[in-house]
Amino acid sequence: GFPLTNLPDPLRGALQGGLGTIYLINTILAVLAAISAPSRKQPPLLWGAKTFAVGGIAYDQLMQIPTPEELKERERREEEKRTLGRGRGRRNRN
């Protein structure tokens, strides 16, 4: 047989336990991703499936997408910086 499939039973059991743990964690993250996706205007089924398959990398990618509230706050801060920056720039010119 193939050497990678002819593993001793204790090693095979350890690998199965490790994979089970990974898929349990991915399942939990997939549920969290599916719940969080609509608030970021993203399809929940896509992010749930992607997170289940890929894991934490996909979940982190989803969390990097700003929510509409975060976008509004960012725009407000940028507008505030522009307003303050214009006033300072004109005063300090010689």
Short synopsis of the structure:
It is built from four helices and no strands. It is mostly helical and 94 residues long. The mean pLDDT is 90.
Q: Can you lay out the helices and strands and say which pair or pack?
A:
Layout: H1 9-36, H2 44-54, H3 56-64, H4 68-91
Helix pairs in contact: 1-2, 1-3, 2-3
* Coarse morphology: elongated
The major β-sheet equals: none
Task: Name the helicity range.
Answer: over 70%
Low-confidence stretches: none
Distance between the termini: 84 Å
**Which sequence of SSEs, written as H and E, runs from N to C?**
HHHH
Helix and strand composition category: mainly alpha
| Mean pLDDT across every amino acid position | 90
Strand content: under 5%
Helix tally equals 4
Based on CA atoms alone, the radius of gyration comes out at 24 Å
Instruction: Please tally the β strands and state the result.
Output: 0
Overview of this structure, please?
This protein is mainly α and about 90 residues long. Helix content is about 75%, strand content about 0%. The protein has four helices and no strands. The longest helix is centred in the N-terminal third of the chain and has 28 residues, at about 10-35. It is elongated. The mean pLDDT is about 90.
